[in-house]
Amino acid sequence: MKTVAVRAEDIDFEAAALEHRSFLLKIAVASTRNPADAEDVVQEALMRGYRGIHRVRGDCPLRLWLSRIVVRVAINHHRSVARRLKRWVFFGDLETVYQGGSVQEFEPADPLGVFDREAILDIRKHVNRLPDEFRMPLVMLAVDGLTIPEIACILDIPEGTVKSRIFYARKRLKETLQGKKKR
Predict the structure, then answer these.
(1) If you average pLDDT over every residue of the chain, what do you get?
(2) What pTM was estimated for this model as a whole?
(3) Helix (H) or strand (E) holding 95
(4) Is 5 in a helix, a strand, or coil?
(5) Would you state the pLDDT for residue 117?
(6) Are residues 65 and 52 in contact, defined by beta-carbon separation less than 8 angstroms?
(7) Of 109, 111, 119, 131, which sits 20 to 30 A from 90 (CA to CA)?
(8) Phi-psi region of 156 (alpha: psi -120 to 50; beta: other; left: phi over 0)
(9) What is the largest CA-CA distance in the chain?
């Protein structure tokens, strides 16, 4: 995987799009909370990236440049009036529909039965209620496993701001969950 900055004229965009698609899809799912919308966001972002490839300055890796486009497209997608009416889902609500018509709900692997599924769904519900500015960096860190510098580059904000937003997201979640336990 290439993580070094490149010049626009040295890029084979088709190969780069194939190489980075799964990474971009993770970011889009974290941003939209819906796999079908995430596919649309990635497709739109890749089209915009292809049209704007001549604007690559070479100061950051192509993967992060494309990630910024995905985040911006996802934000625009989320603001769309038609999309606001749609019920947003997170991983706990995902399901796979097979060709035969059977449906299987997403079930994270838990062979030892260690995790309380209801508690996990409750946490996800509260994560989804966080404002985007707090939720996105938290999900990028916790779910996608991105580093603080990568998140800062993708969201085009300083690293200190990323750390602050993650801190406040965790603080809000902790307060909400502790408030529930006291009831």
Answers:
(1) 76
(2) 0.53
(3) strand 95-97
(4) strand
(5) 66
(6) no
(7) 111
(8) left
(9) 61
Burial group, residue 79, by CB count within 10 angstroms (0-12, 13-18, 19+): exposed
Asked if residue 162 lies in contact with residue 152, where contact means CB atoms within 8 angstroms, the answer is yes
What gap in Å lies between CA 51 and CA 54, rounded to an integer? 8
At 104, is the secondary structure helix, strand, or coil?
A: strand
40 φψ region: left (φ > 0), alpha (ψ -120 to 50), beta (else):
alpha
Six-digit token string for 153: 């580059």
C-alpha dihedral sign at 77, 167, 26, 13: positive
| Angle of helix 62-79 versus helix 13-32 axis, rounded to 10 | 40
Residue 55 dihedral angles phi and psi, to the nearest 5°:
-90, 0
Amino acid identity of 55? R
In single-letter form, the type of residue at position 19 comes to: E
- Tell me how far apart the terminal alpha carbons of the chain are, to the nearest angstrom: 49
Structure tokens given for 132: 């985007």
List helix spans (H) across 90-147: 117-129, 132-142
- Tokens representing 16 are 């780069």
Say how many C-beta atoms besides its own lie within 10 A of residue 27's C-beta: 27
Reduce the DSSP state of residue 106 to 3 states and report it.
coil
Reported as a single tens digit per residue, the pLDDT across 55-105 is 877 777 888 889 989 988 887 776 663 434 333 334 444 455 556 766 555
pLDDT at 167 exceeding the cut of 90: yes
